[in-house]
Amino acid sequence: MPQGKIVKALSGFYYVQDGERLIQCRGRGVFRKNKVTPLVGDEVEYQADNDQEGYVLEVFSRKNELIRPPICNVDQAILVFSAVEPDFSTSLLDRFLVLIEANDINPVIVISKMDLILTDEVKEKVLSFAKDYEKIGYNVVLTSTVESTVGKDLLPILNDKISVFAGQSGVGKSSLLNVLRPELELKTDDISTHLGRGKHTTRHVELIAVGSGFVADTPGFSSLEFTGIEVEDLTYCFPEMHERSGNCKFRGCTHVKEPACAIKEAVESGEIPQYRYEHYLTFVEEIRERKPRY
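The chain above was modelled as a monomer; its predicted structure follows.
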């Protein structure tokens, strides 16, 4: 039986890419019975009735799966944050990083609009943040609004991978994709200056071929809540804390009030940025206050 990848799901149809062919498929009833919902990104076996139509017969095992947006087998998340308009937000970035780390997806931080920075003070601040995240081990890419540099900066990262774009609203995620694939003509809205964030423009999940890879143009993470993440999991989502947590005096240290905590010592010595630790504490509090679900 032929195999392919689901690149779009819309109104009960699954569009399976097999080389140059795109087959519009329905799911077999057995999926509903087994409570399996085929997702964009799934590698599947299908049966084609003709050149354009067929049925998905089997969904192969996934390496990861996101609920919002509904997509699977993602290799990396391109987290797009702007240097200005809207201003770079470490707290929102850290929230995204926790969600990405919890799903075992490799994050790439893209700081856009570097050419729109008007003062040296803001530029130094943004570069200092970039250095902090690089030191933790994250891949950080600085780019501008100039089309020729966007392609040069981003294409090598996207090749041969399934990437999901996410990040701040109004940072120009769709604009970046339009540069990489101009024929897409993805809808972009002006930034709502009143709210300081962009209006929502993207609607359904679809994998778009960019270079030799695929990019998911998705509605992003509509939920930024830490459902399913417990306090003891949170350290794993902060790599610089996870690598030091074995040095804490107490096993299972939450790095909040315990004595002889290696994380708090690293914050005091400047090895871990103060703002990262503060965000960690905020997230711990948020998880603890989460209402139990029955």
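The chain has three domains: 3-61, 71-217, 231-289.
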